[in-house]
Amino acid sequence: MQKMTKIRKKNLFFMAALSLGLPGSLFLIACLLVRYTKNSEKVKIPENTLETIQERTAQNIFEKVQKRTVTENTPDENSQLSETNHTETNQAKKKTGRNNTFETIPATIRVCIRSDHYENELHDSISITSDAPWTLFEAEENSSNLNDRKEIQKFGKEEVFSVSSADFSCGTHLIAVPSEGNGFYFPELQRDIPKPEYEGEIYLYVEKDGLFVVNEVELETYLKSVVASEMPSSYPMEALKAQAVCARTYAVRRIEAQKNRNSFSDLDDSVSFQVYNNQIVSDASAHAVDETKGEILPFSEALYYSTAYVPGSEFMKVPDAEDSDKKDSVSDESDEEFWKMPCFNAAYSETEYLNGTYHDLDLSDNEVFDASLKALPDENAEYGSLWVRWHTVLDVSSVLAQLKQQSGEEFSFLEHIEVSKRSSTGQANELLLGGNGRAIRIEGEYEIRSVLAPKEIPVCLNNGQEITGLTLLPSAWLSIEPYDSQTGKLFLSGGGYGHGTGMSQCGAAAMAEEGADYRKILDYYYGESELEHVKDL
């Protein structure tokens, strides 16, 4: 209606002007020019103003990126960043050198204590005791603040409290508080050491199917146990320091990721996160944590693993001029592009660090990888780790059972199996299996290692030692011999132990043995441009 009124007014204006003849028409044209000029002034933006708006918009984007948490920068069901946002995030990281939102390192961390041998998060029951008197509290009903607690019972020295989920109603929160300077023990909990002590408070969350047991402990105390459990205390001190920085970075990022989530814990004490309290804290592991107090890497997480795969010695020599006319024994290529400079997570030996001759071969081709696997590595590679080479023989029936459990795919027999895709470092990224007239692909390093898990089948190490009970294949740096369906056996060989991302612990030890400090080690595996931002927070 308002629009129609405006149209009518315009029509009346035109009719009145035209009725006046030439003077009226001239008057109309003048009015229209004035109105157009005014509208132009309203929409015109000076160039300097436009530049200011663009700068302000860029600044707003930069500030928003700075405020993002690690989980917000990781696409998941709650946060899907566009390619543009990923670019903005990377640019902001380059400018700031950090992507954490903490002004200080968190004081404590919440660790879920898993059941015997780390099998489950929930416990059917648990027993707690201490070498000194302690007190059991219950969180006030309907209170979300666990500091609102009422005392239930006092316990004397070495007095044991045993509880199951049936003893309390679902939703009950119990808190065990030790005497100052003391910790708790779980007498029946199975770990590699007989009596691991847990400092800090113990939280028991009663659920329908069992108990969640959570240890809230000072972060630096937690790290001392992690370093002792994740890296042998006999390793050189600088390697232990590098481990401490990585472990602290991982822990801080987990705390950050969980801070806005309704979760009982930040992580658990198993290999799914970082192993905690599975070995006695040594003077060396404690010193490594103390010497690097507050230091973290500016990454969303700092991953590490035990041992890398090391190419054989014949692949560790750079071709020189006199070899330029020769063809490589495993490739038709002879140009310099066939060789690559070291990557951050490459395997390490003392020889490489001293003379800088190590070049990482492109091992994405099965034939190239298989040939490198058969060649003997440098004897100093990966601190002399026995996992640098290993082999095993699996029963195909167990592989098919694990395939069904993992993917739901069922074969009555296996006709064909091969690594169908590798990374440039030789790590298997895709496994192709055929049977019953069809084929399926298993994608991902972890998934492949799960399907090919040896479990009770022995894995033979470099010195002939046999290891059983592995729930994953040692690594995805593996070679599969041509499969003969008549034997029902699968012959595997490989190298390294772990997922192969980040810092090799054995490689770090080898570098430290030759005089590299922990910053040099972190530089080698994570990059010099980022390492310079490691500092006390």
Note down, in words, how this protein is organized.
The chain is α+β, with helices and mostly antiparallel strands. 32% of the residues lie in helices and 20% in strands. It has 14 helices and 24 strands. The protein has helices spanning 2-19, 22-43, 47-67, 83-96, 219-230, 237-258, 283-291, 350-355, 366-374, 396-407, 445-451, 505-513, 518-526, 528-531; strands spanning 108-112, 122-123, 125-130, 134-139, 149-155, 161-164, 173-178, 183-185, 198-199, 201-207, 210-218, 267-268, 304-305, 339-340, 360-361, 390-395, 416-422, 428-435, 438-443, 459-460, 466-467, 478-480, 489-494, 503-504. Strand 22 (478-480) and strand 23 form a beta hairpin. The protein is globular. The model is unreliable at 1-14, 33-102, 321-345 and 354-358 (pLDDT under 50).
The backbone outline, from C-alpha atoms, is globular
Low-confidence stretches: 1-14, 33-102, 321-345, 354-358
Number of β-strand runs:
24
Distance between the termini: 65 Å
The proportion of strand residues reads: 15-25%
Mean pLDDT across the residues is 77
Brief rundown of the structure:
This protein has 537 residues and is α+β, with helices and mostly antiparallel strands. The protein contains 14 helices and 24 strands.
Task: Give the SSE map.
Layout: H1 2-19, H2 22-43, H3 47-67, H4 83-96, E1 108-112, E2 122-123, E3 125-130, E4 134-139, E5 149-155, E6 161-164, E7 173-178, E8 183-185, E9 198-199, E10 201-207, E11 210-218, H5 219-230, H6 237-258, E12 267-268, H7 283-291, E13 304-305, E14 339-340, H8 350-355, E15 360-361, H9 366-374, E16 390-395, H10 396-407, E17 416-422, E18 428-435, E19 438-443, H11 445-451, E20 459-460, E21 466-467, E22 478-480, E23 489-494, E24 503-504, H12 505-513, H13 518-526, H14 528-531
Parallel strand pairs: 1-12, 13-24
Antiparallel strand pairs: 1-11, 2-11, 3-6, 3-8, 4-5, 4-7, 7-10, 8-9, 10-11, 14-15, 16-23, 17-18, 18-19, 20-21, 22-23
Helix pairs in contact: 1-2, 3-4, 5-6, 5-7, 6-7, 6-12, 6-13
